[in-house]
Each structure stands twice: as structure tokens, then as C-alpha cells.
Amino acid sequence: MFENAFFQRVAKALLYITLIVVAIVQILPLVWLFLFSLKNNQEVFNLAPLAIPTDPKWENYVRAWTEGNIGQYFFNSVFITVASVVLTVLFASLVTFAITRMNWKANKLMLGLFMVGMMIPVHSTIIPLFNFFNKINLMDHPLAIILTYTAFNLPLTIMILLGFYYTIPRELEEAAIMDGCSIHRLFFQIILPITGPVVATTAIINMIYNWNEFVFVNTFISSDKYKTLTVGIQNFIGQYQTDWGAIGATLMISILPILIAFVVLSNRIVEGITSGSVKG
């Protein structure tokens, strides 16, 4: 018995040591980027990657926010991300509700069509989407990005929601219908609030993708007033000189919202993923 307790303590200690090492490895890139953002061009290339500069260049953040128009790009990123996440979660919830809770002939077919969307390489659609948005005069407009993000995030969002919706007891809906509840009230006032944990999970996953996406914005948006943070970083890349410190500061500014959201809502992510894993 004593030996078992000893081995358990050793195993637990090894587990904690392993987790600490993994956490340090995960945090190191953020530490490197923060130190990178406080250096000038000479220090970036002459100092060690994790070396602390003797005179931190906090003005890199001021220059990134003012000269690099990062304030406008930050607002554009927030607007496009929030709009896309709201539309994706709402449409995915409506589709999942119709497929899992309503009986109609084509529900399985529709589910299959949405799942096929996960098999299409996202960037293989750039040229067709470019031609389509060009014909309907949506090039260089935020709506083109919002529609694209919403469409490509729908299949994964629906797949995550499906497991949770199957666990909702039918008796809950039957009782609401017997009390005179309409189908719209049933969805918006009963089903949607119940699915809060998994909706939060899908919202965070979509938010991370939308916030960090580069190719679609770089392809469909040309005006400076509509660009997002991921594309705006290119402002500090010149023909003859690149302001590496300002680029690092811009990257830190762009990472912070996602990092804060992940830390604050990390429990929601785990809760939402596991909530629909067991049916019954």
C-alpha cells in the first residue's frame, strides 16, 4: 500500500513537471514576440531572440497605432469578426434545429450537403468567389468577407452543434407546444438559451479563425479603410526598409483580444465540446 501511494505521488509529480514544460514551450513564442516588439531593427538582428533590450522601444506601439492606421484596422477586424460570428452561429443553430428537431424528407440530404462543404479546400474557391463578388459589385466591401467567413464556418459549426442538439429531451419541446408555444418562441426562448455552452464554444472557434484570416481579406479588400489587422501589418514593410519593431507591436496588439477571450472563456470551450459528447 505504501509503495502504491509512493508510485502515485511520483507519477503525479512527473505529470505536473511535463505539463509545466509544455506550458513554458507554449508561452515562449509570446514572450519572444513581446521582446521583439520592444526592439529596433538593429537589436532585432544583433541581440539574442529572448534578450531583453536595454532601452525598450515602447514607442513602437504608439507608431503602430498612429502611423500604421492600426486603430482603423482594429475596428474593422472587430466589426467583421463579430458580424460573421453572429451570422454563423445563428444560421448554424437554425439549420441544426431544423435537421435534428423537425421531421421533413430532405433533412438528411441537407445535412450531407453541409458536411460536404468541409471537404472543399477553402482557398481553391478564391477565383470563383472573386469573379462572383466582382459581378455583384461586392469587391472591396466588408460584406464580401462576412459572407465568405459565414459560409465556410457553417459546416464545422453545425457539426459541433449536432451532438448537443441530440441530447435535448423531446419532452421539453412537447410540453412547450402543449402550452401553446409557437415554433419561433420554442427556438429563440427555449432551445437557444439551453445551447448556450456549445454556442459559446462555436463562437470562440469562429472568432479565432475570422480574426486571424489573411488570404480572403488580402484578395477581396483593396481600400485602406476596410482592411483588417492581419493585412494592415504590411504597411510597415517598405521597398528598402522594414520596421520590424512596429510589426512586432502590431502582432502583439492583434493577438491580445484572442488571447484574453481564450483565457476568460477556456472553461466554456471545454464545457461546450464535452457537453454533446454523450448522447442520452
Task: Detail the topology: elements first, then pairings.
Blueprint: H1 2-37, H2 41-46, H3 59-66, H4 70-101, H5 107-116, H6 126-135, H7 142-165, H8 170-178, H9 183-194, H10 196-212, H11 215-220, H12 229-232, H13 244-275
Helix pairs in contact: 1-13, 3-13, 4-5, 4-7, 4-10, 7-10, 10-13
Element-by-element helix/strand order: HHHHHHHHHHHHH
Low-confidence stretches: 276-280
Helix content: over 70%
CATH architecture grouping of the largest domain: Orthogonal Bundle
What would you call the structural class?
A: mainly alpha
- Percent strand: under 5%
The biggest sheet, with number of strands, parallel, antiparallel or mixed sense and barrel status, is: none
The averaged pLDDT comes out at: 85
Q: Cα distance, first to last residue?
A: 39 Å
What is the gyration radius calculated from CA atoms? 24 Å
Work out the number of β strands: 0
CATH C-level class of the largest domain is: Mainly Alpha
Provide a count of the helices. 13
- Overall tally of domains: 2
- Based on Cα principal axes, name the global outline: flat
Which topology of the largest domain does CATH recognise? MetI-like fold
CATH superfamily of the largest domain: MetI-like
Characterise the protein shown here.
- The protein is mainly alpha-helical and 280 residues long.
- It has two domains: 1-57; 67-275, MetI-like fold (Orthogonal Bundle).
- Helices cover 74% and strands 0% of the residues.
- The model is unreliable at 276-280 (pLDDT under 50).
Provide tags for this entry.
0% strand, 280 residues, disordered C terminus, mainly alpha, MetI-like fold, 74% helix, 13 helices
